[in-house]
Amino acid sequence: MRQSVDRTPVWFMRQAGRYLPEYRALREGRDILELCRTPELAVEATMLPLRRMPVDAAILFSDIMVPVAAMGIDLRIDPGIGPVVPDPIRGNDEVWRLRTLDPQAEVPFVLETVRLLRKELSVPLIGFAGGPFTLASYLVEGGPSRNHERTKALMHADPETWSHLMFVLGTSMAAYLRAQVEAGAQAVQVFDSWAGALDPDDYLHFVLPATRELFGSLADLDVPLIHFGVGTGELLPLMRDAGATVVGVDWRVPLHEAWERVGYDVAVQGNLDPAVCLAPWEAVEKKALTVLRRAAGRPGHVFNLGHGVLPGTPPEILERLVDLVHERTEGSAGAWEEGP
Ligand code: CP3
What we know:
Layout: H1 21-27, H2 32-37, H3 39-52, E1 58-59, H4 66-70, E2 76-78, E3 82-84, H5 92-97, H6 103-106, H7 108-120, E4 125-130, H8 132-141, H9 149-157, H10 159-183, E5 187-191, H11 200-216, E6 225-228, H12 236-241, E7 246-248, H13 255-262, E8 267-272, H14 281-295, E9 301-305, H15 315-329
Parallel strand pairs: 1-4, 4-5, 5-6, 6-7, 7-8, 8-9
Antiparallel strand pairs: 2-3
Helix pairs in contact: 3-7, 8-9, 8-10, 9-10, 10-11, 14-15
The structure holds coproporphyrinogen III.
């Protein structure tokens, strides 16, 4: 890991999404879960951004809730809202009834999508899964949540049940990611997007153990393991301890400070504010160059946004951004002045 490269690699979380007219056309009249469960369509969605811009990786088109639905939980993904679980998990009975995912039997269509993609792609394929806290939040809240209050209440009221929930989800996602790698994924990312809602004590006691087991069980795989969350400034050292080889950072922490917090022995991914991409190009360029300056040409920086591409993003801005990152870092690894 952290090998020297000719130029900084760049890809975008949610690079296949509603900001692309061709994605909206593909999605027209179809449920997003139908897209995810139909390998030919999921392949097509994955390929769309690559036809527009020379990003250095593809990310499997799916959703973090796809394997959760396959575990027998009734859910849907509502446009403009996100995952909705009509019968949320509130009691310990429901938690103790959950069974671990069997990827080959329950999500064969995802593994088939991965295999098909490897035949088409000339860049590496990133597989992914949700992190245990983020998945648990959707299951317990029943949908997107600002304060994650029911989730945190369960965590503190019944730590034993909470721990079981974390480990069932963690073990299931570990099996899921291993199956993706065996099918051909060349890197995997754990999106614990909402883990930043926790303070470091609670993250350490209630989420880190299952996450550490998740990454630990994948350590024998010879692929980069990326760990990402939003608003995780205070959690970065703990996330590093979870065992990933790449830590994703959002835009709230300057990249050089984030790298100092996680240590230079791991790679970092990020961290341009996705909202900046709705501003004129000059502003995007300025902010992107700041990210590159902060990365300081150290080996192990993967350029990305600090969170997913927003639906209002003009595709041309991302196209220019990819070119900018490539041009400005061409042959310059190690050549950047240090410092913010
Ligand atoms: O990054 C990619 O291009 C791959 C595809 C991908 C999707 N979801 C497809 C999708 C990935 C990596 C995800 C992960 C995901 N899903 C996360 C973690 C990443 C993050 O954003 O923090 C989360 C929290 C979810 C749950 C989810 N699914 C949300 C919050 C939404 C948005 C709801 C909305 O409409 O605003 C979804 C729907 C979803 N999943 C879309 C896409 C492209 C939106 C477009 C659509 O509905 O077709």
